[in-house]
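hey can u check if this looks right to u? its 124 residues, i copy pasted from the old doc so theres a chance i mangled smth
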Amino acid sequence: MYQLQTEKQKLYFSEVIRLHYEEGLGCERISRLLPVGHTTAGRWIAIYEKEKGKISGMKKHVTSQAGEPEQSPSELIHKLQEENKALKAELQKAEIKAAVYDKMINLAEARFNIPIRKKPGAKQ
């Protein structure tokens, strides 16, 4: 069993547990209300849960992976199709840009007779 050793622990341990389970506050909020650090509050809650076999009484919000509310399958498919179209258009623009840069380098090398590209196998 965990022994409260300091006066601070004796004063605030039960209050931290009460605020967490009865009020549903998290460690950050508790540390603003009481002169206890958020890591200390979290450690005390973990110790209490380990000893008493309790699970945190705070409600967990279930959301999708992106943090958005759940969508129906048809909405999700439509959204993914739109995203796919946008990504394909962006890829096409990037490929055109790369081709233009490549052509520009070729012209500059031919016109000014200066090697711009790095030669393969060059020492670094």
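DSSP finds four helices and no strands in the chain.
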